[in-house]
Amino acid sequence: MTRVVVVGHGPSAHRLAESLQGFDGTVTILGEEPRPAYDRVALTSYLAGKSAEDLTYPVPDGVTPRLGSRVTGIDRAARTVTTADGAVTAYDVLVLATGSAPFVPPVPGKDLPGCFVYRTIEDLDAIRAAAGTATAGIVVGGGLLGLEAADALRGLGLETHVVEMSPWLMPRQVDEGGGAVLRGHVERLGLTVHAGAGVARITGEDRVTGLVKPDGEVIPAQIVVFSAGIRPRDELARAAGLAVGERGGIVVDEGMRTSDPSIYAIGECALAGGQIYGLVGPCFTMAEVAADRIRGGSGSFTGADLSTKLKLLGVAVAQFGQMSGALDVTYLDPVGGVYKKLFVSDDASTLLGGICVGDAAPYDTLRPYVGKPLPGLPGDLLFTGSGVTPDLPDDAQVCSCNNVSAGTVRAAVLDRSLTDVAGIKACTRAGTTCGSCVPLLQRILVKSGVPVSKALCEHFAYSRAELFEIVQVRGVTTFTQLIEEHGTGRGCDICKPAVASILASLHNAHVLEGENAALQDTNDHFLANIQKNGTYSVVPRIPGGEITPDKLIVIGEVARDFGLYTKITGGQRIDLFGARVEQLPQIWRRLVDAGFESGHAYGKALRTVKSCVGSTWCRYGVQDSAALAIMLETRYRGLRSPHKLKSAVSGCARECAEARSKDFGVIATENGWNLYVCGNGGFKPRHADLLVSDVDTDTLIRTIDRFLMFYVRTADRLQRTSAWLEALDGGLDHLRDVVVHDSLGLCADLDVQIERHVAGYFDEWRATLEDPDKLRRFTSFVNAPGVPDPSISFATERDQIRPVGVSS
Amino acid sequence: MTNWTSVCDYADLLPERGACALLGTEQVALFRTFDGSLYATGNRDPYSGAYVLSRGIVGTRNGEPTVASPMHKQVFSLVTGACLDDPATVIPIFPIRVSSGMVEVSVL
Ligand code: SRM
Ligand SMILES: Cc1cc2nc3c(=O)[nH]c(=O)nc-3n(C[C@H](O)[C@H](O)[C@H](O)COP(=O)(O)OP(=O)(O)OC[C@H]3O[C@@H](n4cnc5c(N)ncnc54)[C@H](O)[C@@H]3O)c2cc1C
Ligand code: SF4
Ligand code: FES
């Protein structure tokens, strides 16, 4: 039985342990940190709310890491290692995976309290604690990790400075031109960049008070984070007499073996082919090679792709292949903050590399072509970004984190009949680390021609758009009729609400009318949003966010009388939480009497049209944005759709209403309105695209009418407009052709449908209150109407209720 | 052993929908499916801890009658109480019948 001992428990050690699963021997990991290996690449997300558990990798079966165990010495003759607690552990094979440590330049004051590095969860805890009393922070180092640390300081609310020795930021990933554009982005975010500047000293008596630059300028700050490069942790290897490089790093051969054949070194501490690799992808490959060798294989590590793509401070930065070449083609948009450059061979036939700032689309499409013939004219490739979608050659690497080629992905898709990206991830590991290759995986999947099933669920073999056509053309009016004629079984929580939504879009009937009631999920069924403890929330419509004092008072009184938690929402209206089902009609009776109506916060329907105050009050406003927002919200209220719909209207280009993050957003111009469509906040933010510009109000409304109805007819279930547009063949141009130029001859039809919706609108809550049959459902217990649910209870926090007693 | 308690009129239950009955401290979710059959399960959603299963969407999976939790959509068999997405989790099921137009359940 071979005893493998691993020193260090970082990502490299973790991947090694995974790759040794099922190996005939023991694997002991000695890690200095107080917790098992975690995803260091995602470290910064810890400050944004991820927990240490979220980041921690699952420990593979059969491996018991000894945590908090620093190895202090290696006895190569006896084949043992000693840990700080004095314990001695014997090995047959030793693997050094000690990673690296941040480099702290030897400047006076570097050890003062208030000086930090940015490498471990403990470092982040310490920085967060210190930020509580600080106002300003400095990051020394403007590379990839330095800017990430700067973003973290900014996120902690500090005035943030970045001091970088080179004349521009991220010198290892971008050239001077890219650096200038990047600097513009960083400064617009409010950070101060000191490029071409070193550090003379850190000032302070018993705590940091600031930093002095060599030119004498003083930057006051209470926190300094050093992120000026990394140094491999080769101290154990050095002391044990293993070969190390001149500038550090444990020398290894292609099989990751050090100068002692029973000792391997992997990850950031290893000097492979004369190079230290500071990216996790190559570290993983080294771990796999070492595991293979330990099992008797002959795998080898012959270098790795150092391409990087990341989003720092919201700015996309990417670099692939070489950073120079005989010829280059540059695209520069200083206003939009976009810089893209491609390097090609002297005959302009072969792609050598590229740099992107502000738009990384070329990275996704072009990285696999490095060293291969260009798939198009360089200028076209840069301008259109993702304009080319040729088939990738089999040997093109698609996932650099896990070294997976297009051929491997394609083979997995075909051999195992995969139909989604999740399957590709599980079979090949591609896409499981930084995720930047996922769009490429999706593309390969689609291009492979596998039948990606469009069936809604086991009950219908049709997509939502096809069901919409069926319902419309055949004049279907009930779910029962639809499933009997076109489906199987009795439906489920996927198809029932989808069909309910289609029937509602087409027929305008009350969602609780007849059989419809049984199709709705609990939100639509009680016309309110369910909360974690089984209570519901109430959101009256407040069009455009405009409300009279009298109506505000009514909301306050209702909330007070029913003891509801009250909050201003992100949608410019007010949400009242904690109502039991039997209270909902009583609450709505009061609200309806005061002139409120349903806000459809519970439905896949129009939510809010936010607005700014516009030209009525604002000195910059050029049109009455509030009036238009109220008009739009009133026009489209109650429109049921595949997913929720949000909108906003801003009175000028300053965009205070954030219209470009909405499904449809309107921005006033001197001459009329610009209409933007298919924006999204939420999970995957997307800026809306300009559909038409400088149009008058009638044209605007006609265009929105058609846009909405076209979406309602053709989108998939739960597909927001942004995802719908991205999947739409022909994209924005096709959409404009359909709704502006009527290329499909659909517009008359769309116009009729919207007019029917507008004319047929009624308030769902008022109608419910008028119908005793519908009201009967609003009770907690069928055998004890009026008895409140005893499982619901509340505590008080900041003078309002909060749910208690729900386990999760 | 069964100990029938009458809870409501059969007509109070809507086809393809649930309702909840309170029996002592026990919350029982009652379901009437499209073919008129009745089922009774616990009302507590074991995943969220909230008493809400009676408000889920009723349907079928491979012919088996089901309810989906309104909280996070796990699907339970109305026949066995097993969660079809995670068979290790099972909710209680109770005997239910109609007697002279009244729905009766037994929680013993
Ligand atoms: C109340 C509110 C938060 C607040 O306290 O401010 C809220 C609360 C909820 N949001 Fe939201 N969202 C609220 C504004 C937003 C916004 C901001 C906005 O609308 O300007 C966004 C980002 C904008 C966007 O949608 O593009 C937002 C993005 C989401 C998402 C992600 C959507 C996406 O496309 O990724 C979800 C999940 C979903 O819908 O699938 C969600 C879902 C939810 C749900 C419905 C979750 C749930 O199923 O329980 C929450 C329940 C609301 C309730 O019980 O009343 N909420 N949510 C806001 C209500 C606004 C309103 O007046 O209607
Ligand atoms: C903030 C941040 C962001 C990053 N972002 C990216 C990114 O976007 N993309 C990317 O590719 N890479 C990124 N990296 C780099 C990536 O995290 C590293 O490449 C990776 O962590 C290397 O793994 P490793 O296991 O070799 O070393 P490490 O992660 O350094 O792990 C080594 C472990 O060994 C322990 N150790 C050292 N000496 C001893 C000893 N004597 N006894 C016991 N234990 C010891 C250390 O405490 C440590 O836990 C980022 C790094 C940081 C800090
Ligand atoms: S968007 Fe323009 S008009 Fe509206 S509040 Fe802002 S600055 Fe004023
Ligand atoms: S490139 Fe990072 S996961 Fe594929």
UniProtKB/TrEMBL annotation, chain A:
Question: Which residues does [4Fe-4S] cluster bind?
Answer: 612, 618, 652, 656
Q: Where is the BFD-like [2Fe-2S]-binding domain?
A: 398-445
> Which is a GO BP term held by this UniProt record?
nitrate assimilation
Pathway(s) served: Nitrogen metabolism; nitrate reduction (assimilation)
> SUPFAM superfamilies annotated for this entry?
FAD/NAD(P)-binding domain, Nitrite and sulphite reductase 4Fe-4S domain-like, Nitrite/Sulfite reductase N-terminal domain-like
Q: Which domain of life is it from?
A: Bacteria
Residues given in the record as siroheme binding sites: 656
The alphabetized UniProt keywords are: 2Fe-2S, 4Fe-4S, FAD, Flavoprotein, Heme, Iron, Iron-sulfur, Metal-binding, Nitrate assimilation, Oxidoreductase, Thioether bond
Describe the reaction catalysed, as an equation.
hydrogen sulfide + 6 oxidized [2Fe-2S]-[ferredoxin] + 3 H2O = sulfite + 6 reduced [2Fe-2S]-[ferredoxin] + 7 H(+)
Which NCBIfam families does the annotation name?
nitri_red_nirB, PRK14989.1
What does this protein's UniProt record list under function? Answer: Catalyzes the reduction of sulfite to sulfide, a step in the biosynthesis of sulfur-containing amino acids and cofactors.
What is its quaternary makeup? Answer: Homodimer which associates with NirD.
The entry sums up its family as follows: Belongs to the nitrite and sulfite reductase 4Fe-4S domain family.
Which protein is depicted? assimilatory sulfite reductase (ferredoxin)
UniProtKB/TrEMBL annotation, chain B:
Q: Does the keyword GTP-binding apply?
A: no
Q: Which UniProt keywords apply?
A: 2Fe-2S, Iron, Iron-sulfur, Metal-binding, Nitrate assimilation, Oxidoreductase
Under InterPro entries, the record lists: NirD, Rieske-like_NirD, Rieske_2Fe-2S, Rieske_2Fe-2S_sf
**What residue stretches are annotated with the Rieske domain?**
5-105
**Entry's Gene Ontology BP terms:** nitrate assimilation
Q: State the PROSITE patterns in the record.
A: NIRD, RIESKE
Out of the domains of life, which is the source? Bacteria
One Pfam family per UniProt: Rieske_2
Q: Know the name of this protein? A: Nitrite reductase small subunit
What gene is this protein translated from? nirD
